[in-house]
Design a protein that fits this description.
about 45% helix, alpha/beta, 5-stranded parallel beta sheet, Rossmann fold, 4-stranded antiparallel beta sheet
């Protein structure tokens, strides 16, 4: 599976700052200090519908992480998956009478178009669950053979008790985990499980559903969490720098994935830092495909909305905040984009070296994009009110906003 084309990231004078970011596992901020190559894994879409603003907000957050790292003169090894076989995809295909593979391919293609328009930096590896099945099967077999997994009516379950660190990613108690497991694709009430929280690694073939030869596991298809583990271990290895996704992935997805990997390898941790983006709401409820209250990036683009304005809409809220989308929010972003473009269109302006450092400092402080945008607003306001004489300033501002915030002026 291929990703999307990369937009050029302008080079800036000087060097950026190391990123301090909120780590879900510790509940506090940590300073990310990767080696020369920073490693990040971000969980991707289940492609049964187009990219909505909740998706875009999540990928925007981790695009910023990459941009901060690039500004520190590091390379970035970014991996993202596509869950192109899962219950929601099959259910949508069945409800609409579509072939599930065609549905997945179409929506993945649309996702690529949206990411390109929003200037999201692409992953080095963009890997589907289906193409990962040959990697997944041996991992499930290893877990089973090591006693970390067991069979129940043909299905293979992971035993959460096989990992002494289980629970450390989300920090939730057993009852909270059980409730979220039931809500987010688990089956805590299934009779015969050793622990209600045990997640499925391999689902035995069901009538009318796609299946693969699982070798000693029998025909079937993979569970959700083991997919990301197989991909991350293949391309990044243990102890990579950041595991990212929306806040609804902290449990069960990231919790279970960490335990799978730690039980498989005997090493700890799976990821050094767990970073989660907030949820976007519409009409008082979290944007959700199941609820249908979605604002699609592709629909906004078809309506003529500048992708840079969509990106500024996302940047105006802190990445960890839950917030609600309204037409007024987009109008504010469109107006801001107009002010910024008018400001950099002049032949000279107020000196911008200090502004670049303000943006860097804001982003290094847990990706504080509202502070970064406010700094650019102040420079633009000065430009519009009194101007300046620095001929290089407008170009520097334009390059900095592009390089650090991903907004093309």
């Amino acid at each position: 599976m291929h990703a999307w084309p990369a937009s050029e990231v302008p080079a800036l004078p000087g060097k950026g700052r190391d990123l301090r970011i909120h780590d879900t596992a510790t509940g506090g901020r940590v300073t990310l200090a990767p080696g020369p190559v920073a490693r990040i894994y971000v969980c991707g879409i289940t492609p049964y519908d187009a990219t909505h603003l909740g998706h875009a907000a999540t990928y925007n957050a981790f695009d910023l992480v990459q941009r901060v790292w690039l500004d520190t003169k590091r390379q970035v090894h970014y991996v993202q998956n596509v869950t192109d076989i899962d219950d929601p995809l099959l259910e949508r295909a069945g409800a609409t009478g579509q072939d599930w593979t065609e549905l997945a391919e179409r929506e993945t293609a649309l996702f690529r178009e949206d990411m390109t328009a929003l200037r999201m930096l692409p992953p080095r590896q963009f890997i589907g669950a289906v193409e990962s099945i040959p990697r997944i099967i041996p991992l499930v077999e290893r877990l089973r053979d090591a006693g970390a997994a067991y069979e129940l009516e043909g299905d293979i379950y992971f035993s959460v008790e096989a990992d002494p660190h289980f629970g450390e990613v989300s920090g939730l108690d057993a009852e909270a985990m059980r409730l979220l497991s039931a809500e987010r694709g688990g089956d805590p009430d299934r009779p015969g499980k050793k622990n209600p929280l045990d997640p499925m690694l391999w689902m035995a073939a069901r009538d009318g559903e796609p299946r693969w030869d699982g070798a000693s596991l029998g025909p079937g298809r993979p569970g959700w969490h083991i997919e990301c583990v197989a991909i991350a271990l293949q391309y990044l290895g243990m102890g990579f720098d950041v595991q990212g996704g929306g806040s609804d992935l902290a449990f069960p997805h990231h919790e279970m994935g960490a335990s799978h990997a730690q039980a498989l390898t005997g090493d700890y941790p799976f990821a050094k830092t767990y970073v989660h983006a907030g949820m976007v709401a519409l009409n008082g409820e979290k944007m959700s495909k199941s609820k249908g209250n979605l604002v699609f990036v592709s629909a906004l683009r078809r309506d003529g909305v500048d992708p840079a304005a969509i990106r500024l809409t996302l940047l105006a809220r802190h990445y960890r905040a839950d917030w609600e989308y309204t037409d007024a929010v987009l109008e504010e972003a469109t107006a801001r984009l107009g002010r910024w473009r008018a400001a950099v269109s002049r032949p000279d302006g107020p000196g911008a070296d200090a502004l670049v450092e303000e943006i860097r400092a804001a982003l290094a402080n847990d990706l504080d994009t509202p502070a970064a945008l406010a700094a650019v607003d102040r420079w633009a306001a000065t430009q519009h009110s009194s101007g300046g004489t620095d001929e290089g300033a407008p170009g520097l501002v334009s390059r900095a906003v592009d390089a650090l915030l991903g907004v093309a002026l």
